[in-house]
Sequence to fold (224 residues):
Amino acid sequence: MKRNIILTILASLVLLLSSPAHAVTKKEPAHVVILLDLSGSMAQSIEGEKKVDIAKRSIQSFASILSEDTQVMLRVFGHEGTNKNAGKAVSCASSEAVYGFGPYEEAAFQQALKVYGPTGWTPLAKALTDTKQDFEDNQAEGKNIVYVVSDGEETCGGSPSQAAKELHEARIDTIVNIIGFDVNEKEAKSLKSVAKAGGGQYQQAVNEEELNHILQQEASALGQ
Fold:
């Protein structure tokens, strides 16, 4: 009798532990793309330091604390041509992945950040469209997240909201987050609409402390 009771209890435990509520959930890999605005206005200063230098330092810190299984990519835009009319066409066509999808490696990532400085216009729509292609080329599964760090709105005639919408809807779990760095009210409104279209959120930073805080919070959320 006792033996039958024990066997019944053990069978019940096996069924309980094998149920969906107790199943081990495999963590999906995260693919993080950082889009850095290198338009000419990023050469302007905040508290005596160029915005671009602050942004690069904050992005390096952000990438360094991502989990080891995160695949990270760094893409810059507006880094060619000039911010004059004569250099607009070249600049508006400039979007380049300077650090391809892979685990974070400090030296290589730091070198990628140093390759280009701020110079041109702001082809945000093109950068988002190119990012969509990045995900497709790499067959990125799991959670796909884009972080745009920009100090202004699109200036090349593209539609970043449409590009963000297409990126968001093209893949499951792909969102576009925007961080407006030292932007005015008009620029903030434009960037907010891009984040909304991309299924993400818009946040704003006016100095290095705020930018670091936002990115560190995002890294912590990704880790969870």
In short: Confidence is low (pLDDT under 50) at residues 5-14, 16-25. Strands lie at 30-37, 45-46, 49-50, 71-77, 95-102, 143-150, 174-181, 199-205. Helices lie at 2-17, 51-64, 88-92, 106-114, 124-137, 160-170, 185-197, 208-223.
